[in-house]
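Quick start: what a row looks like.
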Amino acid sequence: KNSSFEVTFLLLNTWLSYKENRSKSSLMPLQGYIVYLQRCCFNFTGDVKVLFSHLFALCNNNADNPSPNEIMDYFVRIEMRNGVSLVLDSNPDVVKTIGLDIPRSWQSCFL
């Protein structure tokens, strides 16, 4: 992982640790800000773009977006606990359909 991804990951994971930030009404303004930053100031790396695309896919009802299950799988794979919490908060039915093996150390956070 590159340093820009690691910094973005840490900042985003910390921001998502506050439950009030895990709502569509909080994510939509963040999405606008990120789009603005990308256009004017930053050239995000591919892995940072993937991170944001998974995050914002939960807010947009676009048929091309990954499913909540795919987003959950992505957040588990990159070990972003608060991303997993975001998926569960916004799509509680995902728990019934996931075939993921959530790490034992995380289970107390979600069950």
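That is the whole record. Residues 3 and 77 are 18 Å apart (CA to CA). The radius of gyration is 14 Å.
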